[in-house]
Design a protein that fits this description.
13 strands; alpha/beta; Aspartate Aminotransferase, domain 1; 2 domains; 14 helices; globular; Aspartate Aminotransferase, domain 2; four-stranded antiparallel sheet; single chain; binds pyridoxal-5'-phosphate
Amino acid sequence: MPFDIARTRAAYPALAEGFVHLDGAGGTQTAAPVVDAVAAAMRAAVGNRSAAFVPGRRSLELVAAARSAVADLLGARPEGVVLGPSATALTYTLARTLGAGWRPGDEVVLSRLDHDANVRPWAQAAEAAGVTVRWAEFDRATGELPAEQYADLVGERTRLVAVTAGSNAIGTVPDVAAIAKAAHAAGALVCVDGVHSVPHGPTDLAALGADFLVTSAYKWSGPHLAAMVADPAVWAGLRPAKLRPSSDAVPERFEYGTPSFPLLAGVAAAVDHLAGLDPDATGDRRGRVRAGLAAARAHEEAVFGRLLAGLAARPGITVYGSAARRCPTVSFRVAGWSPAETAAALGERGVCLSSGDYYAYEYFRAMGLRDDGGAVRASVYHYNTVDEVDRLLAELDELGADRDRMTG
Ligand SMILES: Cc1ncc(COP(=O)(O)O)c(C=O)c1O
């Protein structure tokens, strides 16, 4: 059955406001079941985690349900799911923890395609330990991150390779499995940033070859919470800084403070929502999530294809990146308009896009675009339509006409 876009859009109350949201990469709108689950968890009597009384048991259940849902989303085990406030915070925790065991002369391999959340925590941990940072470079013309370079980048002193599964700037999907293979052959750990990729298709921790994989629920219809997954045995070998009375069990050992129980209810509801995107899918939730995201991806690719073709057909528009495998995300500039002016003008017209570097710091610096405003980003999510893309393209034509009026 073709993707039921009307049914899908009806699940997002915020779409009724009428904005064109082409900034899923910055955060998606929230699905109604998520809103309901969060509200229900806030209305119910919920205490801090305790087996002693019902409200305390409820919060224990909310945590367990969120772990189980994220495990189904990523092909992980619930005991390997560390929950946290953001991907950035979780990566800092991991970087500090792993970095404490690094020695001068060790090496880490970072990529210039990555969001700074999978760069800076590692670079700072490396600096603190006297560890050398080696850089994987992307192809400036295509935005590809060639996996072959990792054979030269990793060696017996490599302790960690950090790489994205999807660029939040230009969509590139690197061959993470090949990169992980090279890293593992050298005995290094691999931390994969799945924040941008996970919303756009089925994800499998083992297939990626990731030792650690991080995702943020607000990029897939959920609340502002994140999770990092790994084999529980890998977590068990690590000792993060922690408070003395807090649990030393895995995965709780890596979680700081009291979590937001209502938002955790929203995480589980978001995964259930994704599992319902393909109404014909049957079987366990993991299978239904994969089917739902595969159906969503097919829809996103059709919408994104129209966007790319429309941008390419407009001579005043420069598009960055053309990777063969990519998430439905593109960065561009409009001649005569700074990226911030473009986004503001579109925003005035009800079309919501990001501009700047969206924290893809190394990418924009390497491209020489960072100091004069980065680019504008359009990112398709499964609730977007061809009509919305056409609206964006029409508004861009209007901007071009405005520019011609100003300069002519
Ligand atoms: C690819 C990527 N990685 C990491 C992050 C950081 O995620 P968080 O906001 O959960 O820290 C983002 C946020 O936009 C992102 O797009």
